[in-house]
Amino acid sequence: MVLAPNVYDAEPIPADAKVEIERLLQSGDLFRYTSEDAPVALLEREFAELMGAKYALAVASCSAALFLSLKALGLPRGARVLVPAFTFAAVPSSIVHADCVPVLVEVGENYRIDMDDFETKLDATIDAVMISHMRGHTSDMDAIMALADARGIPVVEDAAHSLGTTWRGRNIGTLGRVGCFSFQSYKMVNSGEGGILITDDADLAARAVIMSGAYEHNWKKHPVLQDAFSRWQNKLPLYNTRMHNLTAALVRPQLAQLPRRVRDGLRNHDHVARQLDQSPWLSVPPPLPPERRAPDSIQFNLAGMDDLQAAQFTEAASRRGVSVQIFGLTQDNARAFWNWKFLGPQPDLPKTRHMLMRACDTRLPARLKTDELDFIADALVGAAADVMDGQLAFGT
Question: Residue 77: is it exposed, middle or buried by C-beta count within 10 angstroms (0-12/13-18/19+)?
């Protein structure tokens, strides 16, 4: 008998990281600017090479990377930034933190940007676009980049969930002006917290480096054009969002494991998706043709259920040993745009609201084995049948 799988623990930290951490603890050498070959500096070089980007800057979180990206673009106070309405609250928060104004765009039942609404709202009042590849689902980047480029509007990619995802063979995070990634524990690479941004724009990289906390002349330890740095010396605020060496020591040996994790994560996702799609009550939106995903969770929609039945479904799944959240029905969910009270009054977004009220989310780590995947799929399909086929009497 297979027990309910543990979907919360991450993979073990590689032994190489433990050796490096012990070395750092013995030396006390934790600050990233002690040398040009500090672990953070090495991580930046390795990550840039991995992604095919010229420059990388490691920081405290993906939110910090998003914030710095907007500040490094030199946007004016009050700049309007187009952002999908299906994302994590930290994404519009980073826009607010950068003294900009989020403009929310509708998202469809496939979790991707509604391109009609995007094109309508991408008007002369918009100064930048922040594309959130939420839960690793890639919107139509061909159309998005064509529209943005035609208007000269910079695109920042929130690729927190998309490390390892490609679009027409190109790494997500390299399509826009800046790409931002997360190393938080529920991502493909886990250091608990941490983030990194990549770009090919030397001047933008220089501005981000200085604002991240490269005070005095510590920017000389970054492999960016030195004249780009000298232009901004003492002209930018220091936000001190630096990554420290212990975090980099955790991340670096995991980069070599990324291809295997991406392969296994996609295999696991598709294995479960095929079974969920056999149920008349469950539906997994397919990827767009140019997209090759790197999932560590699965999202699916409930079909033909009202609010009560949707709530009963999550209860039935829990009894079967699988935790499911419905983005729009889970209390105070940080991914439901109506809970972002810090934005003030917002126009309603009926397409996104409708999607969130039936969109389900379940953890699906790449380390799971086939019998564990089957347990999860059986529990979800069975829970839907429990509710819709009347096999259980709820509330008794």
Answer: exposed
Rounded Cα distance between 150 and 133, Å, is 22
Whether residue 199 lies inside any domain: the answer is yes
In the predicted model, what is the mean pLDDT of the chain? 95
Closest to 190 (Cα-Cα) out of 111, 252, 98: 252
* Residue type present at position 101: V
Tell me, yes or no, whether 38 lies in a domain: yes
Give the structural domain span for 27: 15-255
Report the C-alpha gap between 20 and 191 in whole angstroms. 14
pLDDT tens, position by position, 172-185: 999 999 999 999 99
Whether residue 61 is found in the same domain as residue 146: yes
Q: Which residue has the tokens 């670096």?
A: 252
Q: Which pairs with CB-CB distance under 8 Å and at least 24 residues apart come from 143-151?
A: 143/115, 144/113, 144/115, 144/118, 145/175, 145/176, 147/118, 147/119, 147/122, 148/122, 151/122, 151/126
**Phi and psi torsions of 178, nearest 5°:** -140, 145
